[in-house]
Amino acid sequence: MNDAVDELEEEPPKSKSQIKREMHELQALGKQLVELPAKQLVDIPLSEKTRDAIVAARSFKHGAIRRQLQYIGSLMPKEDEDAIRIMLYKLQQPHKDEVRAFHQLEQWRDQLLLGDQDLLNELAIKFENFDRQHIRQLIRNAKKEQEQNKPPKSARLLFKYLTEMQGK
Fold first, then answer.
1. pLDDT means per 10 residues in the chain (168 residues)?
2. How far is it, in rounded angstroms, from Cα 20 to Cα 165?
């Protein structure tokens, strides 16, 4: 009877397609590691053999890189995949925060150029030393430049000013 219970608890064998999908995922993870800067690769928990294979892959071209990625993919099952993915996520997170902040600044600039007074008041409250007069002048100049089909110098200056405010 215990044999029957053990058979039910065992996972069914993986199909060839499932094994191939898993290997491709590991190769893709290996490719991400190959593309990392050397100083970030140091932080990733890897065996010496896998680390050496990743460093070697950086000097390969075309077919050789493909074969090396397959080799790295074959080494990856011995690595702690979860720990590697967590470290990759942590390394990529600061960049995502920078992108999010950049998009926020773009949105503020565009809303100010459209005449959003509520946002102007909000930013004046949010940022110490916020110069409303300077902002209004930049907005007027940007609108004038746009009407005259001139380069958006004032819009860029407005973006730069908002960047400086956010950085303080």
1. 54 82 86 87 88 90 88 89 86 80 91 90 88 91 90 90 82
2. 51
Could you name the CATH architecture of 2-79?
A: Orthogonal Bundle (1.10)
pLDDT at 3: 52
Q: Tokens 């680390």 belong to which residue? A: 51
Neighbour count for residue 53 (Cβ, 10 Å): 22
Fold of 94-167: Diphtheria Toxin Repressor; domain 2 (1.10.60)
Token pair recorded at residue 140 = 């007027």
- Can you say whether the dihedral through the CA atoms of 29, 34, 36, 41 is positive or negative? positive
